[in-house]
């Protein structure tokens, strides 16, 4: 097990992961932001270097003080050969299987390995599998093979009419975390609210404020670079606000050079249509999250 330290080594890792897109997307996005100041204080572990097979991104040990907080106890995994990564992932210094945790990856092929480890570590695991989309602006820079030659970036002018005059474009502050948490599919509890607060403090956020000055629609991103936790309060839905807001978000983050991607639940046809409308690229691999609970 090799912890990777130093800017030069992490940049080498980022460059290597870029060659394996889109299957390395979840880890690539995380390492990208580690190379932009590492605001979540994450660390990268590999089984060997420089010719690694498996890389795991995880918080530093001192950050993982709450055994029940799987929002903090989150690992991103990429393996060139998933059949050969079980021993590495089973090491206690790589993944702390005594905690409630979640593992995220763009590789469905890790499923058997993680289920095997869950059984060995005497716990239960639940897998969530969603569609994975790469924002077209990111695909143009990082994965041109995914692009359809007929695809053209959406024209921002056609979204301007969606932005109603009574709404004001703004950003979230940490006091808005409770509202985001209320509508987040993976949230709704105290630990998820703390995670959302941290994301709001750390990364660019976008929202539309209603007449009362409170957010009616919002879009965030997390430590892996994924566009997440977007939502609209019920009385403002079906007005195209999220479409407008995500368009604004993408344009702003693209100027910062951020790689952008997102996941959509297989049953969420509205967000699937939105991604199609924004001409985001549906990639062949999936978004996967495994939630592990020790028994």
UniProtKB/TrEMBL annotation:
<dbReference type="Pfam" id="PF06021">
    <property type="entry name" value="Gly_acyl_tr_N"/>
</dbReference>
<dbReference type="InterPro" id="IPR015938">
    <property type="entry name" value="Glycine_N-acyltransferase_N"/>
</dbReference>
<keyword id="KW-0012">Acyltransferase</keyword>
<dbReference type="InterPro" id="IPR013652">
    <property type="entry name" value="Glycine_N-acyltransferase_C"/>
</dbReference>
<dbReference type="InterPro" id="IPR016181">
    <property type="entry name" value="Acyl_CoA_acyltransferase"/>
</dbReference>
<keyword id="KW-0007">Acetylation</keyword>
<dbReference type="GO" id="GO:0047961">
    <property type="term" value="F:glycine N-acyltransferase activity"/>
</dbReference>
<feature type="domain" description="Glycine N-acyltransferase N-terminal">
    <location>
        <begin position="1"/>
        <end position="204"/>
    </location>
</feature>
<dbReference type="GO" id="GO:0005739">
    <property type="term" value="C:mitochondrion"/>
</dbReference>
<dbReference type="InterPro" id="IPR010313">
    <property type="entry name" value="Glycine_N-acyltransferase"/>
</dbReference>
<keyword id="KW-0808">Transferase</keyword>
<dbReference type="Pfam" id="PF08444">
    <property type="entry name" value="Gly_acyl_tr_C"/>
</dbReference>
<comment type="similarity">
    <text>Belongs to the glycine N-acyltransferase family.</text>
</comment>
<feature type="domain" description="Glycine N-acyltransferase C-terminal">
    <location>
        <begin position="206"/>
        <end position="294"/>
    </location>
</feature>
<protein>
    <recommendedName>
        <fullName>Glycine N-acyltransferase-like protein</fullName>
        <ecNumber>2.3.1.-</ecNumber>
    </recommendedName>
</protein>
């Amino acid at each position: 097990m090799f912890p990777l330290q130093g800017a030069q080594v992490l940049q080498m890792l980022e460059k290597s992961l870029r060659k394996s897109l889109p299957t390395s997307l979840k880890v690539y996005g995380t390492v990208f932001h580690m190379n932009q100041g590492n605001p979540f204080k994450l660390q990268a572990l590999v089984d060997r270097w420089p010719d690694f097979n498996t890389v795991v991104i995880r918080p530093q040990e001192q950050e993982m003080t709450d055994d029940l907080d799987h929002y903090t106890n989150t690992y991103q995994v990429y393996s060139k050969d998933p059949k050969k990564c079980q021993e590495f992932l089973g090491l206690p210094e790589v993944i702390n299987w005594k905690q409630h945790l979640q593992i995220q990856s763009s590789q469905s092929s890790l499923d058997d390995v993680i289920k095997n480890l869950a059984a060995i570590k005497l716990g239960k695991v639940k897998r969530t599998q969603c569609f994975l989309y790469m924002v077209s602006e990111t695909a143009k820079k990082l994965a041109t093979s995914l692009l359809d030659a007929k695809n053209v970036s959406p024209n921002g002018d056609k979204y301007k009419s969606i932005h109603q005059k009574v709404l004001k474009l703004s950003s979230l502050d940490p006091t808005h975390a409770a509202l985001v948490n209320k509508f987040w599919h993976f949230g709704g509890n105290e630990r998820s609210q703390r995670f959302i607060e941290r994301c709001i403090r750390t990364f660019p956020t976008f929202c539309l404020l209603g007449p009362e000055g409170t957010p009616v629609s919002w879009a965030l991103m997390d430590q892996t670079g994924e566009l997440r936790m977007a939502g609209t309060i019920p009385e403002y839905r079906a007005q195209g606000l999220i479409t407008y807001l995500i368009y604004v978000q993408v344009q702003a983050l693209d100027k910062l050079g951020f790689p952008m991607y997102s996941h959509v639940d297989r049953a969420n046809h509205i967000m699937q249509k939105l991604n199609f409308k924004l001409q985001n690229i549906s990639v062949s691999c999936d978004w996967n999250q495994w939630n592990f609970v020790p028994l």
